Amino acid sequence: MYKSLPILLLLASLSQVSFAQKRYSLSGTLTDAATGETLIGATVKLQELPQANSSSNAYGYYALSAPEGRYVVIGSYVGYKTFTDTISLFKDQVLHIPLRAQNSLEEVVVASHRRNNSNISSPQMGVEKLNMSQINQLPVVLGEQDVLKSITLMPGIKTSGEGNTGFYVRGGGADQNLILLDEATVYNAAHLLGFFSTFNSDAIKDVSIYKGGMPSEYGGRLSSVLDIKMNEGNNKKVTVQGGVGLIASRIKVEGPLVKDKGSFMISARRTYADLFLKASKDSTLNKSTLYFYDINAKVNYRFNDKNALYLSGYFGKDVLGLQDVFGTNWGNATGTLRFNHVFSSKLFSNTSLIYSNYNYVIEGLDRTDGFKITSKIMDFNVKQDFQYYAASNHALKFGLHATRHDIAPGDISTTASSSFNDKHVEHRYGYEMAAYLGDEWKVSPKLSVMYGLRLSSMLLTGPGTYSSYDEAGNIIDARKYSAGEVVKNYMNLEPRFSLSYMLNEEQSIKASYNRNTQNIHLLTNSTSASPTDLYVMSSKNIKPEIADQFSAGYFRNFKDNTYEFSGELYYKNLQNQIDYKDAAQLLVNQDVESQLLYGSGRAYGVELFFKKKYGKFNGWVGYTLSKTERKFEGINNGNYFPATQDRTHDVSVVAIYNLNESWTLSSNFVYGTGRAVTYPTGKYNVGGHTTYSYSDRNAYRQPASHRLDIAATYTAKPGKYFTSSWTFGVYNVYAQKDPYRIAFRDSKKVPNATEAVQTSIFGVPIPSVTWNFKF
After folding, report:
1. Rounded-to-integer distance, Cα 263 and Cα 234, Å
2. Is residue 668 part of a domain?
3. CATH number of 93's domain
4. Which residue, 451, 639, 458, is CA-closest to 546?
5. What pLDDT score was predicted for residue 368?
6. In Å, how far from its chain's centre is CA 668?
7. Among 118-122, 164-168, 290-294, 634-638, whose mean pLDDT is lowest?
8. CA-CA distance, 382 to 403, in Å (whole number)?
9. Is 400 found in the same domain as 266?
10. Confidence at 103, pLDDT banded by 50, 70, 90
């Protein structure tokens, strides 16, 4: 019955639309007046009809409808001055709204209608939007601003640890987060083994992460969607900006292709740690390599009010090599071609062709035992999305998505003199398809509902040999399939439902339920963002992962929406979870599925969030109390055990203070319960070598981790054509030695004793300084 509920609600609500009185539409785009950049999530409303309002979509487009008459139009967006204009709505009209940015001092005193309460009125739950100006002010390691590190300061989102850009959302695994860059999937978002992310903040316009109540247009992962949009470029004038830091430099150039109609943006970043290595007198170091680079590029052209074309791409690579012994490189490449078309003021269309490729290479450079291991995952994706503004109280979204996956699990090629043998693992091919329908329905001034249904399908195809395995991992059946022949097909319905009920203008209660499925799975026995992670598709043995999440919350704003508070409860049930057997061999293994175990999981918790949004002093405090467990027949006698990402307490405090026009001070403090780990509980000696016996899976915990970072930004008085700033920071102010790894070994001082040895990545304060410029 619950599967039919979204469709019944949609039919009932649309029946109301058909009997509504004649209305006229107001539509257009919201842009930054200085650059022409479209604004995502800006608000447009009619002063006389507060219920007639709309938010701009991912392309800045908005539409609303109202009875004929004269109205005051109000356009607003955080960090911008409010736009007002009077219109006579006696026919459908197009009104493009340019908004002008305001500086931090102007932001202290603002009109009340500028401060919207969408966090109270919107039915969307579990979503966080990050302000890029705030991200760029946060203190970070070695001065490199990082989107992924910044989102882990939000409640319900936990870091994988020092030296890692991986993150966990509400108990899900690191591979259960869908990371999108201009709609293209980024499979490994890490640079330098996890110290930095692949996202250059100079190139980023908008960052949103969905932790729950996921809209129906998103799918393919269980826990979250991190949706990142790149800047489109300045269509008014050419500008150049960049920065020089201790470890990396970056530059961005943007400008008009045709003034006010089209623009370009290209941004590049490169580290130069390899230059410091070459200066070393140690021959092992000066012949080694260690660097990464990334390039973001985008062009767009608006033909007229109804048609626009966008082309964007990302290219990044890491190179790590130890003299003539070992080398590895890995990287991502994405490309997105999008066409926007406005069929009418009510119907907006976006068509996308998307390419994504993640690959890695590992090389043994020894002349006598040389080898190379290669692997990749490559996607081609076609999407057709529609947005239909049925009435002032309805915003429908529907569309079709299709993705072709090509996974090369790994090949080993060797030199003629090598003692290793060549080895080839068959490619795996599959098609992931989805159709979705969703609606945001403003039932009354107090009640809003967002509901939808997503139908997802996974089609595994040949060519290749596919096997089935028993519980011990032995092959019980093997069959060779020809190209295009169907091996296995899975279909799943994913209902989504959220509602918000406003108790008054300042507070509301919300509830949501959503189901998600996942058909691309990550196999790894490493806690770091290793480039050797192996991706597999749902198959004869691997079923689609399924998550059902229930959540409820209380939301409250204070003092004209200057302060906001939220408390959310969630419970997540996980099916068909994947783990590996002890001593599993995952790399370059044709029968890797024989090494896997399948089970279930659960996660539940409470998230508290308090934020000050406006004024010279702003920031937030987040707290998460949670529990995350897994259950597998082959582990801990089939009982629930803590997952690696289970951390009872997680606290983050962020503070930003605009001291004056020249100086901005910022800091953040984080605290988290130690990671669940498996430690030895006994040992025995075999042939003079110590062998350990271990506890149940994840029965112990590492010590708690905590850290304080500070930063200060000095902005020089701007010239006519040039502005610059200096950012000074200290990461890990009080030299906390958080555990990265704890290993056990025989004591060198006490006979027959065992000692624990802790490895910490950062045990001292890490200073940084970055010079930023723009002209």
Report:
1. 6
2. yes
3. 2.60.40.1120
4. 458
5. 66
6. 21
7. 164-168
8. 6
9. yes
10. low
Q: Letter for the amino acid at 110?
A: V
How many whole angstroms separate alpha carbon 622 and alpha carbon 584? 38
Residue 378 to residue 299: CA distance in whole angstroms: 23
Say if residues 183 and 338 touch (Cβ distance below 8 Å): yes
Cβ burial 500-529 (10 Å sphere, 16+ → b, else e): bbbeeebbbebbbbbbbbbbbbbbbbebbb
157 is a domain residue: no
Q: Indicate the average pLDDT of the chain.
A: 87
Distance of CA 716 to the CA centre of its chain: 33
Range of the domain at 97: 5-115
CA dihedral of 621, 624, 625, 631, whole degrees rounded to 10:
-170
Instruction: Return the half-sphere exposure (C-beta side, CA atoms, 13 A cut-off) of residue 443.
Output: 15
Bridge partners for 211 per DSSP: none
- Can you tell me which residue has the tokens 């022409």? 36
Residue with tokens 């908004």: 99
Question: For the chain, first and last CA: distance in Å?
Answer: 60
Residue 345: phi and psi, rounded to 5, are -60, -20
**Predicted TM-score (pTM) of this structure:** 0.91
684 pLDDT band (50/70/90 cuts)?
A: confident
715 part of a folded domain: yes
Give the C-alpha separation, 696 to 681, whole Å: 9
Which of 483, 583, 596 shows the shortest CA–CA distance to 536? 596
Residues 506-539 have pLDDT tens digits of 999 999 999 999 999 988 755 444 556 788 999 9
Beta-strand pair 93-94/24-32: parallel
Domain count for the chain: 2
- Say if CB 767 and CB 725 are below 8 A apart: no
Only one residue has tokens 């939220």, namely: 566
Q: Which residue has the tokens 């609303």?
A: 64
Nearest Cα to Cα of residue 44 among 32, 27, 24: 27
